């Protein structure tokens, strides 16, 4: 099939490459010249394991092209995937859906045959029905469907080619059949799919992210209690996780969730509920958000106590800037937030990250950045492990002991083997595991 993909950010670029990989002809469009140039040259504008290799393979087949011309992407295609971002609106909790609206307008203006416009962006419930009505008014041959995306950064290719499930928000048999054809290779491979009406399909996505955020904040709330009574949240979490009804995934207590999705999605969901007169139903998400942000404050206050109650004149190494490992994304990164807060309070903050330094520098140019964890940790009064990259969990505590001024480590992600580090002479502090009355 001939597909167009509108928007080549994380979601769009990966979706385009994966659709070409399963055999479709894909032309992906973006207004950003530098993204199009990089992708056309086979270079990913973001870090995603395996993506450069996938790009090279599919570009070589000739089935994938990137363009800055909406017309070139849209004309001749029968299915158009809208994959643009829906960031948080400045000064509001709501999502900004102007890019979705203009993507739909671009498709309608340039389509030269009948087809299906498939929204993949995360949108406030009700958007698809509105767009569907608008498209029906202007174009008789185009129909709207919604097909939410559940990919995780760092696992984007696997999540696209072997998703847990596909959700088809459709209003006709034609739309359902078309999506079955697009995803035929995945469905043949056993991926389950559900059809839904448009609002349900939009809700699946935000409900999933709200649930995941709630699960993380639940265990972080338990961490707060553990800190008071000197209990160990990592043991608590493991014990809870053995119960199949609870499950162990997304139950890692630490610095909480960040990134371009979970934080803004729970806020946008609450804002939308407010507009719909259902504020009470989602009021708990405000608490989920607050618990999450409190973890960052706790990390800063514990760090300050560890270095003697005063950041001024203290050198703090922060290991990690990305919002999670295997990503160079620093949007709403808990690690960078903590680094910036300590810097504001007077600490000399020295940041390292294996992949996210350039993005971090662009956001917080006044922090110190280092090319190696060793350099960041040299003469440090405290190391704060803030993103759980394997590189950091594999650090040899003996070797790092000779680098630092004081052998003190705050593990905000609960990934360090505390015994090994303690045996090597370190004072180890961990969020949610007691012993924080410093
Ligand atoms: C999230 C969802 O997991 C995807 O299903 C969804 O498609 C995506 O948002 C989206 O809306 O586009 P992502 O933002 O890539 O994916 O990252 P996650 O793996 O969900 O992690 C989010 C944050 O939660 C990270 O900061 C991570 O460190 C934190 N986290 C995760 C915890 O603090 N504890 C955990 O147990 C798990």
Primary descriptors:
14 strands, six-stranded parallel β-sheet, 14% strand, alpha/beta, 438 residues, 19 helices, Rossmann fold, binds uridine-5'-diphosphate-glucuronic acid, 2 domains
What is the gist of this entry?
The protein has 438 residues and is an alpha/beta fold. The chain contains 19 helices and 14 strands. It folds into two domains: 195 residues, Rossmann fold, CATH 3.40.50.720; 218 residues, NAD(P)-binding Rossmann-like Domain (Rossmann fold).
CATH overall fold name of the largest domain: Rossmann fold
Quaternary structure of the protein: single chain
Gyration radius from CA atoms, angstroms: 23 Å
Question: What fraction, in percent, of the residue positions are helical?
Answer: 40-55%
- At the first level of CATH, what is the class of the largest domain? Alpha Beta
Mean pLDDT: 97
Number of helices: 19
Q: How many domains?
A: 2
Ligands in the model, by name, code or SMILES, are:
uridine-5'-diphosphate-glucuronic acid
Poorly predicted tracts of residues: none
Bulk shape: globular
């Amino acid at each position: 099939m001939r597909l167009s993909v509108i928007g080549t950010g994380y979601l769009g670029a990966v979706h385009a490459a994966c659709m070409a990989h399963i055999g479709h002809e894909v032309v992906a469009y973006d207004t950003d010249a530098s993204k199009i140039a990089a992708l056309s040259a086979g270079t990913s504008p973001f870090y995603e394991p395996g993506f450069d290799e996938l790009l090279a393979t599919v570009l070589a087949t000739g089935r994938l092209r990137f363009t800055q011309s909406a017309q070139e992407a849209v004309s001749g295609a029968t299915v158009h995937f809208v994959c643009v971002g829906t960031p948080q609106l400045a000064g509001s909790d709501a999502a900004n859906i102007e890019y979705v609206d203009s993507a739909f307008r671009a498709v309608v203006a340039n389509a030269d045959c009948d087809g299906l416009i498939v929204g993949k962006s995360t949108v406030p419930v009700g958007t698809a029905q509105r767009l569907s009505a608008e498209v029906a008014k202007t174009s008789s041959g185009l129909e709207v469907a919604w097909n939410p995306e559940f990919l995780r950064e760092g696992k984007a290719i696997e999540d696209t080619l072997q998703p847990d499930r596909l959700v088809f928000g459709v209003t006709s048999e034609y739309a359902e059949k078309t999506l079955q054809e697009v995803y035929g290779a995945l469905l043949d491979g056993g991926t389950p799919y559900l059809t839904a009406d448009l609002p349900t399909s939009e809700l699946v996505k935000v409900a999933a992210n709200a649930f995941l955020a709630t699960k993380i904040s639940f265990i972080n709330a338990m961490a707060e209690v553990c800190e008071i009574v000197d209990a160990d949240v990592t043991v608590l979490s493991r014990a809870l996780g053995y119960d199949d009804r609870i499950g162990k995934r997304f139950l890692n207590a630490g610095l909480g969730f960040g990134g371009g999705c979970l934080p803004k999605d729970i806020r946008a969901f609450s804002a939308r509920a407010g507009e719909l007169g259902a504020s009470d139903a989602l009021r708990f998400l405000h608490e989920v958000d607050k618990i999450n942000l409190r973890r960052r404050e706790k990390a800063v206050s514990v760090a300050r106590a560890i270095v003697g109650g005063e950041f001024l004149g203290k050198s703090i190494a922060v290991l990690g800037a990305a919002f999670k490992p295997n990503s160079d994304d620093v949007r709403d990164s808990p690690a960078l937030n903590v680094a910036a807060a300590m810097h504001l309070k007077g600490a000399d903050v020295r940041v390292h990250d294996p992949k996210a330094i350039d993005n971090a520098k662009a956001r917080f140019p006044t922090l110190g950045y280092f090319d190696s964890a060793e350099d960041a940790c040299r003469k440090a009064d405290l190391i704060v492990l803030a993103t759980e990259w394997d590189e950091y969990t594999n650090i040899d505590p003996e070797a790092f002991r000779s680098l630092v001024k004081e052998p003190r480590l705050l593990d905000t992600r609960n990934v360090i083997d505390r015994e090994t580090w303690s045996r090597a002479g370190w004072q180890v502090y961990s969020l949610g595991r007691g012993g924080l009355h410093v």
